[in-house]
Amino acid sequence: MARWALISGLRGDLEAYEAIQADLRHTRRVDTLFVLGDVIGPERECDALRLSQGEAAVDALLQAVDPGHMGWLAALQFGFIELDCALLHGSSAAVDDSLGPNSSPLLLLDRLTRMDVNRLFTARSGRQFRLELTGGGIDSQVRDLESQRHQQQSVPQRQVIGIGAGVRYTLYDPGSDRLDFLSAGSKPQQRPRGFA
Amino acid sequence: MSQTLLISGPPGCGKTTWILSQLRSHPGPCGYLCLAGTPDEGLSQARDGGIDLTWLQDQRSGLQDLADPDQALAPRPANLLALIELSQFQPPTEPGLAGMDRRVIPQLEALHLSPDAHLHFGRDAVLPRQDTLDFSSLQAWERNLAGAVWDPASLSSFWFELVNGAYGDAYRAWWCRARISIPPPSRSPSPSA
Amino acid sequence: MVQGKDLDPAAIEVTLTVRLIAMPQSHAVISCLHANLAALEAVLADIDQQGIATITCLGDLVGYGPQPNEVVDLVRQRAIPTCQGCWDEDIIEGLNACDCSYPSQLAERRGHLAHQWTAEQLSEESKAFLASLPMSLRRDRLLFVHGSPNSQHEYLLPDMDAFAALERVESAGAETLFCGHTHRPYVRELREGSIRVRQMSGEPAGVAEAEDRELRLPLRRIINAGSVGEPRHGNTNPTYVIHDEDIGAVEIRELPYEVERTCSAIVDAGLPPIFAWRLRHGFEYAERADDASHVCER
Predict the structure, then answer these.
(1) Hey, of B150, B154, B156, B159, which one would you mutate to test binding to chain C, going by the most C CBs within 10 A of its CB?
(2) Helical packing angle, C37-49 and C259-268, nearest 10°
(3) What is the pLDDT of residue A19?
(4) Which of B37, B176, C22, C39 could crosslink B87 through cysteines, CB 3.0-4.6 Å?
């Protein structure tokens, strides 16, 4: 059975990465590791960085990264689509779209719809959470030159999952839909924080 | 016993369609030839471009190309049905074989073909009743798209415009596939060239 | 109330002015003019005939059609508040829309050809005007955009996902969203929406607690004005909408115009004759991309 490890927000912290690797080697059976961005610094999209932290932050980031790595970083994909899951740093709207547990459900549903996926894994907020759309609907009435149509649409059973950042990472089993929020270096929980 | 028929009639009267029905009902070997026809005064002939042969070969397996000079000298099978198509605006002035356009005879002789009978649409009752448009002039327009990058969606748009008369009244239109995998428009002849 | 015996001309004037402002106001919304002067003139005459003074234009003044300067001049002359459409933007900025906006290479080539022709024809004054147009216009809770609040290139099709449609209106802080770009007019009402979610947090460390909550969604409307210059609704008639703010009524107007005048102008201008044929038969110049939710990353 496939199991994914999802990490993000290392921001150049090699120790955190090694701690996760050690964690995965010793205790978890994982066959794919996905890194959802922020390997090197606050963001790939420097405009967002410039706006939030100023020009000095951009310069500091550029100083910190080996120029030889720039091409590789620039070539990174926007995200991955695996099975019915989207694995992204931000969201389907933008790389710096920060989705968290308190984001509007309407916004979350829109982000899921844009990519037509059932699970959207996001890292931007740095939070670990699982938001499951459990029900609801909407009435839509359209009138044009030909006709008037009425339509009732239900909320699809979809989820947005925040995978955490740094040493806090997530394991996901797409077969069973089981999710585990973990923290590298900490002792295994008596009762794992997992959801099936 | 083999039989060779010359079928003539104005463009669009249904020659190729009738020929296909004969080819399909004949159990033995079949051959086909489309003659270029001769320009009559005031009436321009549309070029065939080999499209009818290609289409018929697609529809009737094993159809022999009678224009193939290598085949012309080979002995013909005993029960061969050889059908020769000729585009001809004016009705023949004499009945039967005597009414055959003399100008096509050299072409037939070169291919060792000698019609047993001549049937003309509108004259011979064995053919379907003529139901043709009144053409005074025909233009054939052909464009080779080899090398031009045309995606299926573009072809579809262009086809839509063509058959709806955007480039003039279109009586017949084909598109041929050639080394690209695009689905042909539904219900139109689609020879694999 | 002013009594007759105390009549003061200044007082009457003030009273009348207040009264006029408070009168129920209908306003007209037009979109996608596409350099079709005959169609624009017909629509403006129809609006005038109904005594409607407020007109808003949702952009795409130019593109494909043969009279870009004339259409820009008429919009300026009538002082019609206008937001910028994708064509207006591209003419100023250079081709900005990604190839995915076109469903075929043929459509793309035609689009580029029309773009080049229009860019050559437009006067510097017209270009400056198009460059000055805002992305959106807002009047209270009414928002006017060309495509969607996200982008001039995004299509809000009448049957797109209802939640995604509502999100566009809601995220923009509007109650009623006026848009164009699809060239097919419609009125869409989204009501009685709700979304239930179960939230499970992995933080803080410990046992995760599930928490259920429900979001009640407000009533929102999307009104698409269709197209004046390049209708895509099945015939050649331009469309636009009249909205009554007080009672919320929306009328989709459709009217004939001298389509042959524009077709002749297309041919005379040296634009491809196929543009005239398509316009005359009620087909759009170039088909639109099918994916409404497509987000251009350029």
Answers:
(1) B154
(2) 150
(3) 77
(4) B37
Rounded to the nearest angstrom, the minimum Cα separation between A53 and chain C is 24
Domain A4-37+76-195's class? alpha beta
pLDDT digits (tens, 9 = 90+) for C239-266: 999 999 888 899 999 999 999 999 999 9
Percentage, residues of chain C above pLDDT 70? 83
- Does C107 contact B157 at a Cβ distance shorter than 8 Å? yes
Contact A109 C195 (CB under 8 A): yes
Domains and CATH numbers, chain B: 3-120 (3.40.50), 141-193 (no CATH)
Report whether pLDDT(A39) > 60.
no
Residues C8-53: pLDDT tens digits?
Answer: 555 444 444 444 443 448 999 999 999 999 999 999 999 999 999 9
pLDDT (average), residues A143-162: 92
Return the higher-pLDDT residue of B8 and A57: B8
What is the Cα–Cα distance from A88 to A78, expressed in whole angstroms? 7
Domains of chain C: residue spans and CATH:
26-280 (3.60.21.10)
What pLDDT shows up at residue B192? 32
Mean pLDDT, range C96-123, rounded to an integer: 81
Contact yes or no for C194 and A137 at CB 8 A:
yes
**Structure token digits, residue B109:** 């002789």
Q: Would you give the DSSP letter of residue C101?
A: G
pLDDT band at B46 (very low <50, low <70, confident <90, very high): low
CA distance C71 to C219: 36
For residue C187, the chain A residues in CB contact (below 8 A) are 142-144
Instruction: Note whether B158 contacts C105, CB cutoff 8 Å.
Output: no
Measure the CA–CA gap between C95 and C112, rounded to whole angstroms. 8
How far apart (Å, rounded) are the C-alpha atoms in residues B67 and B107? 9
Amino acid C238: pLDDT = 97
pLDDT in tens, A70-123: 565 556 566 777 788 888 877 777 777 778 888 889 988 888 888 888 988 888
Q: Cβ contact (<8 Å) for A105 and C167?
A: no
Q: Does B159 touch chain C (CB under 8 A)?
A: no
Chains with at least 3 CB pairs less than 8 angstroms from chain B: C
Instruction: Please tell me the distance from the alpha carbon of residue C104 to that of residue B158, in angstroms, as a whole number.
Output: 11
Secondary structure, 3-state, B145-192 = CCCCCCCHHHHHHHHHHHHCCECECCCCCCCCECCCCCCCCCCCCCCE
Instruction: Name the residue in chain B with its Cα closest to that of C103.
Output: B153
Separation between Cα atoms, residue A128 and residue C204, nearest integer Å: 9
Structure tokens at B170: 């279109």
Please indicate if any CB of chain C lies within 8 Å of the CB of B148: no
Could you say which of B150, B164, B166 has the minimum Cβ distance to residue C105? Answer: B150
> What's the rounded Cα separation, in Å, for the pair C273 and C29?
30
Residues of chain C contacting residue B150, judged by C-beta atoms under 8 Å apart: 105-106
Is the CB of residue C106 less than 8 Å away from at least one CB of chain B?
yes
| Cα B100 to Cα B104: distance, rounded to the nearest angstrom | 8
Confidence of residue A179 (pLDDT cuts 50, 70, 90): confident
Q: Decide: B59 and B22 in contact? Cβ < 8 Å.
A: no
Question: Could you say which of C106, C277, C278 has the minimum Cβ distance to residue B158?
Answer: C106
Q: What is the mean pLDDT of residues A56-77?
A: 59
